[in-house]
Design goal:
The complex is a heterotrimer of chains A (319), B (256) and C (407).
Chain A: H1 2-54, H2 65-70, E1 75-76, E2 84-85, H3 88-119, H4 122-137, H5 140-161, H6 172-196, H7 200-208, H8 213-224, H9 226-242, H10 245-250, H11 269-274, H12 283-313
Antiparallel strand pairs in A: 1-2
Chain B: E1 10-19, E2 22-32, E3 37-41, H1 48-54, E4 65-73, E5 76-77, H2 85-91, E6 92-95, H3 106-117, H4 122-135, H5 139-142, H6 155-167, E7 173-177, H7 185-198, E8 203-207, H8 211-217, E9 220-225, E10 228-234, H9 235-240, H10 245-251
Parallel strand pairs in B: 3-8, 3-9, 6-7, 7-8
Antiparallel strand pairs in B: 1-2, 1-4, 4-5, 9-10
Chain C: H1 2-41, H2 47-51, E1 58-63, E2 82-85, E3 90-96, E4 102-109, E5 117-120, E6 127-129, E7 135-140, E8 147-148, H3 153-161, E9 168-172, H4 179-210, H5 215-226, H6 232-250, H7 258-283, H8 286-294, H9 299-310, H10 312-328, H11 331-336, H12 354-362, H13 369-405
Antiparallel strand pairs in C: 1-5, 1-9, 2-3, 3-4, 4-7, 5-6, 7-8, 7-9
Helix pairs in contact in C: 1-13, 4-7, 4-10, 6-7, 7-10, 8-9, 10-13, 12-13
The chains are: A mainly alpha (319), B alpha/beta (256), C alpha+beta (407).
């Protein structure tokens, strides 16, 4: 009798082990698949993005890479009949707009975080935190719609009072306002965590020296949280650089020339990718991959620079 | 009129303190004398740290904390409604149990207080910082690296930095809450020597759970037990001829 | 010294003011955005919107035989210039369409009206419901002049009253319904979760249960985390380059379709699902695993029977987060699914989701802000509800976890 039991037990154990091996293989596969997507994405954008530069593009000739990256005009010549594309001006506009959006959203976001974490009474903190979470969950297309319906009107009226003819309100200012609005929730929520994690002992130390609450907040709390706050800024600018549909509704689709005037229409790399997507083919279609490639390079370099600055900030002394 | 008479630096009269329902200090009456080191001793939870924090109103930061009685400082009751708390804290400095330097440079740490007061002139600040570091017996060790982050200092150095930070405000009184309990013996003895030097310029109130420390450095000692001031007097007298049986029991180590 | 205190107080006051102002920017922004969406979009929000086709369709129909005449009075208050036919139980009104042309609109149809459901002459068997706001173009009778919309509502009503039978009538549906996009969005949610959940949960299980922490697992995690920094439009390009051709070659699809869109969305959601699942797997106490293994179960049984059920609330939260993201995603889907607004939805045919529908309308000439705002209201509503449910779930889960720790 014991022999049969042992035999069954041995068979069961062997079967269980085989099941384990199979399942482990399946799980490993899913993990590898998930991790490989980043490589696939980068790879495909590279391959498709480079194609217009090295192939003949159905007789139009290869696109000049240098001109593409530095040129001032989206397209010289007729669509589907020319290969003279360039996004140089859009690179400048994209960076300029992202920088301005951060300039606007960063102080508002950080101060809101300070308010929620340290100054506001608990019930008000809860309300504001919910407001921020709700704003964070609103999809970008709704922000674009809001921009199109409300912000364009405001900018248009604003430019009229200054006597400036704006393209129906489509302008750098409109894009900056929409992007700032979208970045504020991100910056606020991450900064709030950083601010709340500042050691109480430091706050007490400051107050014991006869500093006021406000002085303590601005000189000590924000300084102590600066690493987390800087991360918030990096994420905020990342969102601004990559936003597409919302920007495309308020930018104005500028076809050439760099302008730093707030009320001028503009194009970003992302809005160029969406421009005219509904009826397009051939090189005009493929070139969007190249624009996407440029976008990824810009984002990568920006992140690199900002992270380098972040490491420096840790050691530089702050007043 | 918010005035009261004070002989020494502080005159504490009928002080009662409540954390919500619980009474932490019961009818405390105590003078703090000028240019002397007053030690507060007693077992854990007896209220000595709480009492220390009443002297610069740091208890205000604790929710549900209620204070009754008067603490007379410079002719005014510091618990009066018209008291400027910020001004009080500039004259009554505090050093905490665990060193808490700000995440800034050594220079900025010491200059923090004066800057909050509005001192901006570079030379003035340099002077203040240098003098404070000298008085805190730290200057020689850090004079070449004032711009370095304060967190790069050792524990003992950080604590002396916190003392320098407090001194930079030119306070009248320095409150110390177990300043050496987180430090090694060598650092401890350095700070004890420092305190003996400092009392020439400042009045010091120090909370300590180390009776030998109280004996070594203090002039006056107050013994607290369960929120009450049991005995107060000259240190030597209190330790050699304690008047109260409970004092004697604590000193001889029968409890605590 | 006193002067310094005053200066400090002024500086402090200034800083406090800008802090207060900044904090209320977000509150104000939220109110204005919601207010805008409501003011533009609420009046279009009705049940018809969700069930109607987007494209306005014309029909020629006749009355089902043996349907009795109504001879009824209206059950609601009809306005000033509304004309009512008691015989047929229908009310018509003169109106203008979006282009300014004069049209005759149906204002009200009585429950017992023989015209409530009419027979589609084009297809034959399917009855069509005659709805308010449809445009009545003409009604033809036997031996009586045809009533044309050109002559107005009153004329049509008079003609109806003068006849007991209708030969045929021609009308136009209002269009602007979002049924197609809603169905597409639902399909997208289903297929995206179908693709993303197994892969994501599987990867999380591998990283947390099967693999030992090492440089290798850290590399995998970094690779997965980097995905979160990629803008969604880039995912769209990837979907366009890989998943669209894939589905086109494997099925009868001719371009962007629901499957390619779902695959693209699945990739976008992988990091979120993996991260959230890993967190909820970590929370499951090791004791559970040890106990299961000690009882003779293998790792697979332990995972499926013990660990996953405990981690279920976390996985549920991840799913809800994913749904929220799917409903709101626009840039990636412009490329991965296309922007054709369709009424007849198939998994491999062209269609679009609610969010892209907004973008497609807003980039048209002229832009339809009202309908866009209505759709936006629906999307925001769904997102808010989802977030609320997630919050309730996580607080209850947290309570259970803390309560369990006290045992």
């Amino acid at each position: 009798m014991p022999n049969t039991n042992v035999l069954i037990h041995k068979q069961n154990t062997a079967r269980k082990r085989r099941v384990d091996q199979i399942m482990k293989a399946i799980f490993t596969f899913t993990a590898l698949l998930s991790a490989s997507f980043i490589i696939i994405i980068v790879g495909i954008i590279f391959v498709q993005g480079f194609r217009p530069f090295i192939t003949d593009n159905h007789g139009l000739g290869p696109v000049n890479l240098w001109r593409f990256v530095t040129g001032d005009v989206w397209l010289i010549g007729n669509t589907f009949a020319s290969n003279l594309y360039s996004v140089g001006y859009a690179i400048v506009s994209t960076l300029f707009i992202a920088f301005l959006s951060l300039l606007l959203a960063f102080p508002i976001g950080v101060l809101t975080a300070l308010f929620i974490a340290k100054i506001a009474p608990k019930p008000l903190s809860k309300v504001l935190r919910t407001v921020i979470e709700t704003l964070a969950s609103i999809p970008s297309i709704v922000y674009g719609l809001f921009g199109s319906g409300v912000i364009l009107q405001i900018v248009y009226d604003l430019s009229a009072t200054f006597g400036y003819q704006s393209k129906g309100g489509n302008s750098i200012l409109a894009v900056v306002l929409v992007l700032s609005l979208m970045s504020i929730p991100t910056i606020t929520s991450i900064s709030e965590v950083a601010i709340r994690s500042v050691d109480k002992a430091i706050i007490h130390g400051s107050l014991a020296l006869g500093a006021s609450q406000t002085q303590t907040h601005f000189k000590v709390v924000l300084a102590s949280a600066k690493s987390g706050i800087f991360t918030a800024a990096i994420l905020g600018i990342g969102r601004a650089l990559g936003e597409a549909t919302a920007v495309s509704l308020v930018a104005g689709g500028r076809r050439s020339g760099v302008s730093f005037h707030l009320l001028d229409s503009t194009s970003t790399l992302t809005s160029l990718m969406l421009e005219g997507i509904k009826e397009t083919t051939g090189l005009d279609y493929d070139i969007r991959f190249s624009v996407g490639l440029v976008l990824m390079v810009v984002i990568f370099l920006t992140n690199l620079t900002l992270n380098a600055i972040k490491r420096r900030i840790g050691t530089v002394h702050v007043k | 009129m918010n005035s009261c008479s004070v002989e020494g630096v502080f005159q504490v009269e009928n002080l009662n303190l409540f954390y919500g329902e619980h009474q932490a200090l019961i009818q405390v009456n105590l003078p703090i004398e000028k240019n002397k080191v007053t030690a507060l001793i007693g077992p854990s939870g007896c209220g000595k740290s709480t009492f220390l924090r009443t002297l610069n109103r740091m208890n205000d930061l604790i929710p549900n904390c209620k204070v009754e009685g008067t603490i007379c400082y410079r002719g005014e009751n510091i618990y009066d409604k018209t008291t400027d708390v910020i001004d009080l804290r500039r004259k009554v400095g505090m050093v905490f149990q665990k060193p808490n330097p700000f995440p800034m440079s050594i220079f900025d740490n010491v200059a923090y207080g004066p800057r909050c007061q509005g001192v901006k002139e570079k030379n003035t600040l340099n002077q203040i910082v240098k003098q404070a570091l000298i008085d805190a017996a730290l200057y020689e060790e850090v004079k070449d690296r004032l711009k370095e982050n304060a967190l790069s200092l050792s524990g003992g150095q950080q604590q002396r930095l916190c003392i320098a930070r407090a001194i930079a405000m030119s306070p009248e009184v320095i409150l110390m809450d177990e300043p050496t309990s987180a430090l090694d013996p060598i650092a401890t003895s350095k700070i004890e020597d420092l305190i003996i030097e400092l009392k020439k310029q400042y009045s010091i109130v120090i909370v300590t759970h180390n009776m030998q420390q109280a004996l070594r450095i203090s002039d006056k000692t107050a013994f607290f037990l369960l929120g009450e001031l049991v005995e107060f007097g000259d240190t030597e007298t209190l330790f050699t001829h304690p008047k109260h049986p409970k004092t004697e029991a604590y000193i001889t180590g029968r409890f605590g | 010294m006193l002067n310094n205190r005053r200066i400090t107080k002024i500086k402090d006051f200034f800083l406090q003011t800008i802090t207060y102002l900044s904090s209320f920017v977000s509150l104000g922004a939220l109110l204005i955005i919601v207010g805008f969406l409501f003011s533009k979009g609420i009046h279009l929000l009705n049940i018809n919107l969700i069930t109607e086709n987007y494209l306005s369709t014309g029909f020629v129909a006749d009355v089902f035989p043996d349907t009795p005449l109504c001879n009824c009075e209206p059950t609601i208050e009809l306005g000033e210039n509304v004309y009512y036919s008691p015989k047929w139980g229908i009310a018509l009104v003169d109106s203008k369409d979006l282009l300014g042309k004069n049209v005759v609109e149906i204002e009200y149809v009585h429950a017992n009206s023989p015209l409530r459901q009419v027979n589609d002459k084009g297809i034959g068997i399917e009855p069509i419901r005659l709805r308010t706001d449809y445009d009545m173009i003409r009604i033809a009778f036997d031996a009586y002049p045809t009533a044309l919309s050109r002559f107005g509502a009153q004329n049509m009503i008079q003609a109806l009253e003068a006849n007991n039978t209708i030969r045929e009538m021609e009308f136009q549906t209002t269009g602007g319904g979002i049924r197609g996009s809603i169905i597409t969005t639902l399909y997208l949610i289903f297929f995206t979760l179908l693709f993303a959940l197994p892969i994501g949960i599987g990867a999380a299980i591998y990283l947390n249960e099967f693999a030992k922490p090492s440089r290798w697992t850290r590399l995998l995690r970094t690779a997965i985390e980097t995905l979160t920094g990629v803008p969604s439009i880039i995912y769209g390009l990837m979907g366009l380059a890989i998943f669209v051709p894939l589905t086109v070659s494997l099925t009868d699809a001719t371009g962007g379709n629901i499957l390619s869109g779902a695959m693209t969305l699945a990739v976008i959601l992988l990091p979120i699902i993996i991260r959230t699942t890993e967190e909820s797997l970590k929370v499951v106490p090791d004791d559970f695993r040890q106990a299961s293994l000690a009882l003779g179960a293998n790792a697979t049984q332990t995972t499926f029977k013990v660990v996953l059920p405990s981690a279920f609330p976390g996985i549920l939260s991840a799913t809800l987060l994913a749904i929220g993201r799917i409903v709101g995603e626009s840039a990636a889907l412009v490329f991965a699914i296309g922007t054709s607004i369709k009424d007849h939805i198939t998994v491999t045919g062209k269609s679009t989701s609610l969010a892209v529908h907004i973008w497609a309308m807003m980039t048209d000439e002229p832009a339809n802000i009202e309908l866009s705002a209505t759709i936006a209201l629906i999307i925001v509503f769904i997102t808010v509800i989802l977030n609320l449910v997630i919050k309730i779930l996580s607080t209850r889960y947290l309570k259970r976890k803390l309560g369990g720790a006290h045992e």
